[in-house]
Amino acid sequence: MKKLDNIQTQLLLTNLDEEGKLSCLKAFKVARLIGMKPRDMAKIAKNMNIEITNCELGVFGKLKFSDMHDDIYNSLKRNTKDNKKVECEIAWKEAQNKGATLKKVGSTIKNSDIKVTHCQLGCFYDEEYESFENKT
Fold first, then answer.
1. CA contacts within 13 A on the Cβ side of 8
2. What is the pLDDT of residues 14-51, one digit of tens each?
3. 86 within 8 A of 37, measured Cβ to Cβ
4. Which residues contact 97 (CB under 8 A, 6 or more apart)?
5. Is residue 36 assigned to a domain?
6. CB 102 within 8 A of CB 23
7. 1 contacts 40 by C-beta, under 8 angstroms
8. 44 and 12 in contact (C-beta within 8 Å)?
9. HSE (side-chain half, CA atoms, 13 Å) at 68
10. Dist. CA 63–CA 85, nearest whole Å
11. Which end of the chain has fewer CB within 10 Å, C or N?
C-alpha cells in the first residue's frame, strides 16, 4: 500500500472526531479526498493507530438505532444468502435504491437476524469480526 503524503495525512487527520477516531462515513469521505479505495481505509487507519468507528450498519461503534423497517428487511432478505448475510455494499445500495437512509437500513439490520459481511472499508470480512487480514 502506498504511503500517504503530507496533504493526504492532513486531510485524514482533519476528519477525526474529538476522540481521535474516524467514523465510517468520514472514512468514505477521506478515501475520496485522498484518492484511495475505500477498502484501503482500514489498513491506512491501522497504520496510523486510528480507529474506525460508528459503522452506519450497526456492526460496531456507538450509533443509536431506531426500530426495524419491514419493507427494508424484506428487500434485504431477498439479497441475502441462505445464512441471512448481506454484503455491506448491498446494504448501502439498498439505502440508495429505496430512497431510505443508511440509518433506516442500519436500524433494520441491527434489529433483525440479518448480518453484514465484506465491509467496504476493509474493517471486517464477517460481522463476527473476522478481519480481512485473517482471510489469507
1. 14
2. 999 999 999 999 999 999 999 999 999 999 999 999 99
3. no
4. none
5. yes
6. no
7. yes
8. yes
9. 14
10. 21
11. C
pLDDT for 56-109, tens place per residue? 999 999 999 999 999 999 989 887 867 789 999 999 999 888 678 899 999 999
Residue of 123, 3, 48, 14 whose CA lies nearest to 133? 123
Beta strands in the chain (DSSP E): 22-23, 52-53, 85-87, 115-117
Retrieve residue 11's grid coordinates. Answer: 486531510
What residue type is 128 in one-letter code? E
Residue 29 belongs to what domain range? 6-53
Total count of domains within the chain: 2
Q: Residue 56: how many CB atoms within 10 A of its CB?
A: 22
Asked if 48 and 87 sit in the same domain, the reply is: no
Residue 118 domain flag:
yes
